[in-house]
Design goal:
169 residues; 2 domains; flat
Length: 169
């Protein structure tokens, strides 16, 4: 009786454990199936999006290729030889302009030139421009000094080599 008393709870525990294990297995299978379906749906969406993007890229490539194709070269006409129409395109007149118009044209041109000059001077006088010019000048002076020193050294070497050659000879 003692063995049977232990067997029933052990069998019952084993049955409950097996049922829990089967339930867990079924739950895992359902979850993996759901995940697999979700991944497949996502892959299908990605494929559709990829196909759409591929179609758009192909359309753009065709558009660019069509735009890059050279069309018929236009013929430019520099002179009016051979055209029908008035021989003198300028309106008749003595070719003079009135004084106010001339003064206006001259003043506008002068004002534009003066404004451009003032803008250039203003840019040249900015501190960062002056500092950059100063830096470049210092660098150029150092380079020139270095070049002169190198040239002087090479001339001294050549002179010493000639003197040695004369002493030997």
């Amino acid at each position: 009786m003692v063995g049977q008393d232990l067997f029933v709870p052990a069998a019952l525990t084993l049955a409950v454990a097996l049922a829990a294990l089967c339930g867990l297995l079924l739950l895992l299978l359902a979850r993996s199936r759901r995940d697999r379906d979700r991944v497949r749906a996502e892959a299908d969406r990605s494929r559709a999006e990829s196909a759409d993007l591929r179609a758009r890229v192909d359309a753009l490539a065709e558009l660019v290729a069509a735009r890059d194709r050279p069309g018929p070269e236009p013929e430019y006409l520099i002179t009016r030889v051979g055209e029908q129409g008035p021989a003198d395109p300028l309106p008749p007149g003595d070719g003079r302009i009135e004084g106010r118009l001339f003064a206006d044209i001259v003043l506008r041109e002068s004002v534009v030139k003066a404004a451009a000059l003032a803008h250039g001077v203003r840019l040249a006088m900015r501190p960062e421009t002056r500092n950059r010019i100063r830096f470049e000048m210092r660098r150029e002076v150092k380079r020139a000094r270095r070049d002169r020193r190198d040239q002087l050294r090479s001339l001294r070497r050549e002179r010493q080599a000639r003197q040695r050659a004369e002493e030997v000879a």
